[in-house]
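User: Predict the full complex structure for these chains.
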Amino acid sequence: MDKNQALDAVFDLKSVAIVGVAKDEEFNTGRLFLNHIIEYGFKGPIYLVNPKGGEAFGIKIYPHMKDIPGSVDYVISCIRAPLVPQLIKDCAAKGVKAICSFTSGFSEFGTQEGRDLEREVKRLAEQTGVRVIGPNCIGIHSPKACFSPAPDFPKESGRVAFLSQSGGNTLYLVRAAGARGIRFSKVVSYGNAADIDESDLLSYFGQDQETDMIAAYIEGVKDGRRFYRTLREVARSKPVVILKSGRTQAGSAVAASHSAALATPHRVWKDMVRQAGVIGVDTLDELADMLVTLRYMPPLGGKRLAMVGVGGGAGVLGTDDWDENGFVLPSLPEPIRQAWRTALGNVAGTILTNPVDIPFLGFGQEPFMKALAQLHNLEGIDLLVFHTPVRGHMISVAVGGMLLDAEAETIIKVHQAPGKPMAVVLHYEANLDGWKLADKQTSRLYEAGLPVYYSIPSASKAIDRYLRYLANRGTA
Amino acid sequence: MDKNQALDAVFDLKSVAIVGVAKDEEFNTGRLFLNHIIEYGFKGPIYLVNPKGGEAFGIKIYPHMKDIPGSVDYVISCIRAPLVPQLIKDCAAKGVKAICSFTSGFSEFGTQEGRDLEREVKRLAEQTGVRVIGPNCIGIHSPKACFSPAPDFPKESGRVAFLSQSGGNTLYLVRAAGARGIRFSKVVSYGNAADIDESDLLSYFGQDQETDMIAAYIEGVKDGRRFYRTLREVARSKPVVILKSGRTQAGSAVAASHSAALATPHRVWKDMVRQAGVIGVDTLDELADMLVTLRYMPPLGGKRLAMVGVGGGAGVLGTDDWDENGFVLPSLPEPIRQAWRTALGNVAGTILTNPVDIPFLGFGQEPFMKALAQLHNLEGIDLLVFHTPVRGHMISVAVGGMLLDAEAETIIKVHQAPGKPMAVVLHYEANLDGWKLADKQTSRLYEAGLPVYYSIPSASKAIDRYLRYLANRGTA
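Assistant: Here is the predicted structure of the two-chain assembly.
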């Protein structure tokens, strides 16, 4: 089976086998997979294999692949590395489409034995047509098939595909971006990329009808030319955001021992990404910020913004941050100032500047809503930003919760009316209380279609990258 | 009364009056102060003043300052700006030590009237000796007097003093640093600095027997020469960490309308800070990171570190981050590698490099503890770093909690034995679940005397600044 067919089948899997699962009262990663696949809600049959036999979670463990009564689409292997080649042969006999090999101990070990083993895996994948994901990875997450290695991943499908050379970074990004309203079509943690590699996945997601944008975490590429060619081609039709680790020599060396990644000098890499029209980022959080921006921010006309928020010190620091990323906060024309004066009376300190510093209490009131609506439609402004220092107030957590509710309601109401693009910054979480408040509002806001950021520096960086991406594509 | 005497009296206050408090069934900021002062646990009498009379929280509201039966140390004013001069005179008659004027409407308004009013406040403070904090601020937090404007601030006193020109930034920093084990001796939000200004406060904290280090958020200084002289002098005996906003022209302009701050070109400011031996930072989180480092990190010999953590991708990205801040992760000598091989068997992928990638499951087991102890005492290493991607794992939240418990226990055990300085990075919180897990472990770890950071970039930046500070002082 060719790689694209195998990927199609695997993201639509109807049955799975976990090989090397431990029986009840023992523990291994196979049991983690089993537990999570059940908990996430996979409906198809789950087969277990271990020569020792027994039972796990009430499911019989077969001694061998060939003993499984039904057909198997996808196999998760948790057996020791030297046993994997034989497993591929057994899977071929059984008609399996692809194996994810979780276990490490291949070329990333840096030994001749490990390299030989990985070469053998690659050869067998090509020969048998049983495609291999990994080794040294957690494989696929496919919400449409109700299949996931993590029970707490979002259940709904979205339009973002993610390929990641690290399992941990996969788990982090899906959770972090998930909390801000990003949903995935298909996710794959692909480790050492012995068989299915980054170019295969990029090309596959490029053609995938269920995918509108692509995110990637990459430690090294197998074939630079092919990767660049694929990148250019895919980036023409879909936004691609890439985080490449190994920016430094030290980082590259560690990448080699993590996923056997080949080093690309970071300068070369950066040029390549820019020329391909791809958005490069430097951290996983920047990757999440970028996905949120691409998903929830309409095209912007420029860098002139009006900012409204509760908190003077936060506004001062925030103005520095916007300015450093090339944004301007123009002074507001007299009619708008007058609207704010009417709305706020004598309460706030900085009502006549931009940012507008507002008290919490005005939210929802008529003159306040009017002033906001005017700002939302102001000529000479490209973007309206709300910022709230969640725990940068005297108010208690309980009262803070009520005021944030009122604020979110107001923001959503303004957003529903025609006007400029909007963004919300929920910053100053400070501590767990703050994260509880922010988490609740974030859900409400993204459900209403708004991009939510957790700091002004991160918002300004992401929106600046977005504008450069739009300009590059000629759509700004 | 001179300013230092007034500050001594106010941080040791026995009684307070809130002027302009609204009665029950109405709402204003005076009621917030009242509510929070009671909730934080202030033991002395709280007097309320409002010409309209009535009651609030069962406390009688007097029509006038002169009607208060007992003596009053500290007054919080929530009345309109034009009424403040008369209040100062009334306070003088009553023997009040200092007033905090919460209300804005002074020079930060940018009007002649506002400037005149502020000048009058300054003149009256000097003439009557009733010192003024603000206007446009939330005043003091003094745990030793059980007095705070925020009910959720830590109750215990510590050895850090904080002066802040923004109330919101005060509230954020005390909460954010508080969650990581920073406790304060004295905190003051000082707004426009009409009377008591940044130089007064810096000099006061410099001499304060209860203060070991000083943090500051400053938007502008009143008297550059005096401030620089004070800074140099104070920095000779205590670490001083300063966040200055208004790095950009746009930010400076907003600072002027927030707290009437005078602009200092940022380049001039940076030179001044460096020459005075002060630690400059660029964000509130960096300020918190720096306080955590100064409080919990012993002096370091250099930039060679060993990192141990659960998660390969996080290790790769983290290595880039350390490298970019000039740290080195030397390869580990053979006996240490052997100890890890014994401890981990064949499980982990990158056991032979630095960072050491470990499985969660080894924690607490004998050979694992041995390998850690060896690393903790390794020649050629200046610092041992643990990192944990909190939600960068397949494990469920419940199991994650148990494993993090075991990990924290192990880290604390290693830390209690003699060895190199240690730091812990709890990163990859991802979402609210992650913050819940991280918050619990952070408390355990700082209670055991460990510095905790929330990302490797922030840890490496803070520890790099710490090393430069030590070198500057000749103690590295």
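Residues 158-198+209-295 of chain B form a domain with the Rossmann fold fold (CATH 3.40.50.261).
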